[in-house]
Amino acid sequence: MAVKVWLNLDPEKVDVSVLDEGLKRIGCSLLAEAVEGSDSVLAHALDADIVISIMERWDSAMLKQVAGKVKFIQKYGAGVDNIDLKAAGENGIPVANVPGGNSAAVAEVALLHILNCGRLFYPCVAGVKKKCWPSTITGRELDKKTVGLMGYGNIARQLARMLSGFEVRILAYDPFVTQPADGQNVTFVRTVEELFRESNIVSLHIPCNDETRNSIGKDLFDVMSEGSVLVNTCRGGVIVEEDLVSALRSGKLSAVGLDVLAEEPPRADNPLLSMDNVFITSHMGAASYESEERSQRIMAEAINEFLHGRLPAGVRNREFLCG
Asked: What is the C-alpha radius of gyration for the chain, rounded to an integer number of angstroms?
C-alpha cells in the first residue's frame, strides 16, 4: 500500500507536479488539499502517514493526537516556528525543513524592498497608473550605504552575494557565526546594538522563537540614525509592531519593507497598512518557479531518506527524538 502524504496547499495556486512525480517514484501518494482550522487539519493528518506542513499550527496537543499515525512532518520552507519541535520529538515525529531551497528567492525580495525603500519605485509606478505624469519621486541610491544583516544564514548569505554588485559596506551579526562565507566581504559586529547603530539599512534574517520573538523594538530603533531603513523577510513576530509604527512616525525610520507581519493576513485597522512609507508584500519571498522546483525535489528526497530509515539532513528536532 502506498505511503500517504498530505500537503496543506491548494494545487490550483501552486504547481506541485515536481513533488507529486518525485513521491510517486518512491511509492507515495500525494493529497494536496488546503484546509484551515485545527479540526480539519487533524482529520487530514490522521488520514496520512506523512504531513507536509505550510503554516498550520502544530502544538503539543495536536502532536499528541497524531502520535503513532503521522510518522514524519516535512515543512514546505525553512521556518519551523509553527511546529513545537520538542513536542514532536517527544511523540516520535521527526520534523524537517528545506534548508536553502528558497534562499535566493527570499534574498531577491529583500533586495527589492531595499531598493524600493531607497528609490521609491512602487510609488512612482502607482502614480503613473493614476495618470500622474511625471510621477517621479526623488529617492536615495544604495551605493555608499551600510547594510546590516541580522542573522547570517542561507538567505542572508545570498543577499550579501547580490549586494556585492553595489558599493556598499556589509555588516552582520549572528551569535552562531563569526566568519563570512568564502569570497564575501562581510564584517561581523559583536552586538545587535552595534549593527543597528552602524547601518543605514537593516535586513532581518532570524528565526522566530522564544529568544527572538518581539526582540526588534524601541531599544534598537532608538540607536539607529535618523532616516534609516528596515527590511523584514523572515517572520513578522520578531518585531514589536507598535514600536515600528512609532519609529516611522518620528522619522527615525524613513521607510520599511515588509514581506511578513505579526498577524497574517493583517487586520484592516493595522496602522502599517495606511502609512505611505511602509511597503508590504504578502509573504511572497519564497514564491518563485525555481525555488518551488528546488524545494519540491528536496522534500521528495527527504521523505525518501526517511522511508529508508535515515534521518534527512534537514531534520530540526534531532535532540528531542527518543532513541
From this structure: 21
